[in-house]
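User: Quick one: structure for sequence A, then sequence B.

Assistant: Sequence A:
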Amino acid sequence: MSGSNVDRPDPGGSAGAVMDRPATGGASGTVADRPGAGGSSGAAAGRPDAGVSGAVVVGLDVGGTSTRAVVATVAGERLGAARAGGGNPTSHGPDRAADEVRAALRGALAGITPSRVAAGVIGLAGAGRLLADPAGRDAFDRAWRDAGLRCPYTVHSDALIAYAAGTSAPDGTVLVAGTGAIAARVRGLRLDRVADGHGWLLGDAGSGFWLGREAVRRVLADLDRARQPDALGGRVLTTLLGHATVAPRPRDTVDALVQTITRRPPVELARLAPLVVEAARDAEPTAVALIAQAAAHLADSAGRIRPPEAADPVVLGGGLLTGDTPLAAALRAELRRRWPDASVRRAGDGAAAAAWLAARDLPGTTDPAALHDRLLTAAP
């Protein structure tokens, strides 16, 4: 892409790379997820932006399973929002990913004049890979133009978006744990240093994959010792084999379990993480121990990049940390033990955070912290 400017490293390569080539051509207008939306973007009657003054921004949170877009003013008023399918180009390929980005943009912009949009931010995992792929950059450029947008947009990593979804502080730390896991140090709202995020084979300690793999390992160890697996082990066997019965010769169950797992993509072990979480809620000892180990691993990752005396905020993101989960509770306790003066916050709406990042440097934004509060408080 012409004019791309990479300004900081991120887990997938680069964050904050500006896609600043002016967009040309394209159409806009599909169905949004708010009542009464739709119709031509040029029609004044019933338009969500009718009577609204000031610049408008767009934020997108692009994930492997869904793509969310938010349109808002620099005063913090939400004008539109929409959701589409997974738009991560690494998972789905650039063309399909761009289709979902286009659908989310059109939905959120339905009834809004696209020319009013002054800036946009797209957050996604592996931002650097997108920027390094000409086909991916062109596909996202086309999606942007097809939505009727002519302003520049910036691509940030999902880790930075998660951080901004939890705080407006310019400096701090973000920990994200879902299928994988990563920690990042943020300075001036740019990723500065990163720990882990090395993928399932080499890292992602404390992640959903890690929990699933360790749960299976505990089952295999019990079977090797000719012991009956515990309650968590029974859940694992039932999920993978359809039953929890151990063969008279335990090695036969070991072989069946190993064959079942090795026939599937390794990352599918992450699907066992909810079993560990639920077992920990029931105070099953093996699950409780695994949760404690996962929390320690995640805190250790943060410790690689966060000074011992740091007092700036820590934001928790990802499916394992943003809900009311045993892992989130264990990690919060571990972080407070290691950094007692730091606040620990939970990431909120990523699309709203992306919109805030797009708005914060525009001339009409006089109080970025107050704008953050308005946009994130209004998040559904």
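Sequence B:
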Amino acid sequence: MSWKKPPSTTLIVPTCWWWRNPYEQCAWLARGISQSGSYRSGLCVAVRAEDRHSLNPDLPREDRAVRLTGEEFETFPDRGNILVVPLPLIARGLNIVKGIRSAVRSVYLCVRPLALLNEPSEMYASINAAGMRALPASGSSDPIAALAGARDAAWERLRLLLRSANQFTSMQKSLQEEVVAGMIVDLIQLAGRARRGGTEAVLHMVDFAFHEDTWSADLDTILRRIHAKWPPEVRAQMNALYGEALNAFLSYAGIDPNEYPLTTALGGEDE
């Protein structure tokens, strides 16, 4: 592994929403960087408080990398120029700034998210969303029937989750879309913070799994499926909420937000 010191502040981000110990990925990545022959200094790695001075062999030695707990992330620009940190810890609400400008110039997204939808929090969120989507958008004169329809949709989503494969490429398409939609929202939040004060920040998607299209489970294809299902009012709402950041992801997928057809969801229904 060769290493060239980055010219500006960088985040290296394992995308581990449901990883049982998200700090493990950080430790492995940081250790790999610290052991690179041309590495010199500037590396910081996210750790739990109990690992601040741990002898955990997965972590780089303290003389090779600065260990930062969640409360210390905002001090990162004064401690180094590379931070290896789980995405869920920095996507929302964290500001890494110098003055009024973001201190982050590059974000490396290292691992496509693990789609463990059997985790209770993610399962309940998916079931609840299915029920909510089944409610009539304009209300109903028969609330009992409307609630019964939402209940049926929620039960159907539970059955889908219970029989779905855990491997992302083998999941039902609607579940793939849920995973990717959640990832995109977090990345838009992160991008907004990285661009604070007019800072130019670049997002790098490192894992080839983002781009592998053998099973139509690459990011481009899934984004096109999601976008094709949005009616005009949803597109307007999404543009109002996320604007330029969302359009950047759509452009990555080869989508013109103003011209992409509304009628066809690529790949059809779940198979």
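The chain has seven helices and eight strands. Helices lie at 22-34, 87-90, 120-134, 143-163, 173-194, 219-228, 232-252.

User: Thanks, that's what I needed.
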